[in-house]
């Protein structure tokens, strides 16, 4: 198990459709490509997908994969079209795919890195098959797919410890993302490989990228109906100016990630204003007293008549 090379690694460039997968296909192993969508938004879940080709010689499936690329490089229309093809019921028994997510509250309980890796692990475990190899986009491998104690990040132990000592980055490399103790009978793949820029280089990862992206976009459109004040359908939870303005006007909702900077700041501002309002509350509804009305000050008599 290990980490794939960078995009400059010519040995693993996308030379052909199955240039990455064929190594494991030759061994008789199934290969799952895994990717996530939604690490950067201020609201909504992070979603991961896993995709497996069950028959390496299935020309119809391979034809679809040949037209798939990193979801970020495709238009919305292209993604939607490819999503329908990749998830077409006619491919049942010829491909296997799974989608999983970690909610905004789960992200807040740990951190976005931990949640992303957790969603990836859930997606792999959600497959109807057990792949021998798992190819993951990025530079980290889901700890729960690894043997206990196995390295999950590309960084050296020295670099990892250095990152932990940096306040700003410490929460992303805490022990929360270390592999958890697992029962001996729990399944793990033989190989888990992290591939930098894998969503544009490995067909199975590209397919997972498209599925995760479209699934999450559709989910955010549903949240737009539930929370119509924020415009989730338009920006999918990302920190656009329109989204930030909606937060300033309406506060945050249950789907906002409360540990993310702009949301944390908005909550702090609302709390400060609420505290200030609570402090002023006892004075509301009472007329300010004049000096003459203060204790110990004799009130002047009202004039009963006046004239010039």
Question: What would you say about this model in short?
Answer:
By secondary structure, the chain is an alpha/beta fold. It folds into two domains: 2-224, Nucleotidyltransferase, domain 5 (2-Layer Sandwich); 229-281, no CATH class. It has helices spanning 22-25, 59-66, 76-86, 104-109, 112-125, 157-164, 167-170, 203-226, 232-235, 241-250, 261-280, and strands at residues 2-3, 31-37, 46-53, 95-102, 133-137, 191-195.
Distance, first to last CA: 104 Å
In which order are the strands of the major sheet placed?
Answer: 1-6-5-2-3-4
Q: Figure out the total of helices.
A: 11
Q: Please identify, by name, the CATH architecture of the largest domain.
A: 2-Layer Sandwich
The helix/strand class is: alpha/beta
Low-confidence stretches: 6-17, 287-308
Q: Return the average pLDDT rounded to an integer.
A: 82
CATH homologous superfamily of the largest domain? Ribonuclease H-like superfamily/Ribonuclease H
What summary fits the major beta sheet? 6 strands, mixed
What does the overall shape look like?
A: globular
Oligomer: single chain
State the CATH topology of the largest domain: Nucleotidyltransferase, domain 5
Question: What fraction of the residues are assigned to beta strands by DSSP?
Answer: 5-15%
CATH class of the largest domain: Alpha Beta
Radius of gyration from the CA trace? Answer: 28 Å
Instruction: Kindly give the count of domains.
Output: 2
Counting DSSP E segments of at least 2 residues, the number of strands comes to: 6
SSE pattern, N- to C-terminal: EHEEHHEHHEHHEHHHH
Helix content: 25-40%
